[in-house]
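tool_call: predict_structure(chain=1)
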Amino acid sequence: MIKIALPNKGMLAEEAMALVKEAGYRSKRATGKDLSILDAENDVEFVFLRPRDIAVYVQRGILELGITGRDLNLDADVPAHEVMALGFGGSRFHYAVPKESKLTPEKFGGLRIACSYKNIVKRDLARRKIKATVVPLDGAVEISIRLGVADVIGDVVESGLTLREAGLKTIGDPVMVSEAIVISKDGKSCSLPQCQTFLKRITGIILAREYGMIEYDIPKKLLAKAVTLTPGIEAPTISPLKDEQWVAVAALVKKKGINALIDKLADLGAKGIIVTDIKTCRL
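tool_result:
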């Protein structure tokens, strides 16, 4: 039996739980205080941990896999191995200064930088060959400049509203771009059968969120042109209709740009165009 860590609270936890449930696993806690859930059918135990702690347990080999944020993993003393990105929980890690400041990251030498992600900041400063004082804080980083604790802050930014309300602005390019990820100690633990099954199922869910099944009827004489618009993965499914001059076509297509695709098919002469969501897939 393998152990997989899931975040115990927050938006990351909600989306991770939904993903695991869609993949066919039993992971719903009876109460918010449950520390673990056993899914005997799939030979998996899900352990609920603080998102920031997950990298520690996984990197030490106590748990085979975990779902956490890339930022939280990279802020660990020794980051775990990133197996795959999950496409949710997106954010950016930025430096920020008072909106009237002319500071840039190249001028941080000798300054104080407050943050809740000290290792990310330390590694970035080392990369830039800048010597500055890192001031670790557990939260409310935005107010640290006004209170005289720091000259600069480094923090995770989503909409940027909190920074603006504090009279701050981001400077420079993002130090890193984060999202939810699956982590392991190294590639070896991923070779376990239960881990392989978990990763394949999760991959299937993520792919399914990107694709839809489009179906439509098209005159045979226009089929060749229609197929260039909807080639599918290997090839579309083409079925005969009662009217021998027409055929039905079904194909997987990317959801991005789906409305423009429908417009093109309709202009070409397709009828009865529908798009259906799919729950999971293997490509």
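agent: Residues 91-177 form a domain with the D-Maltodextrin-Binding Protein; domain 2 fold (CATH 3.40.190.10). Proceeding to next step.
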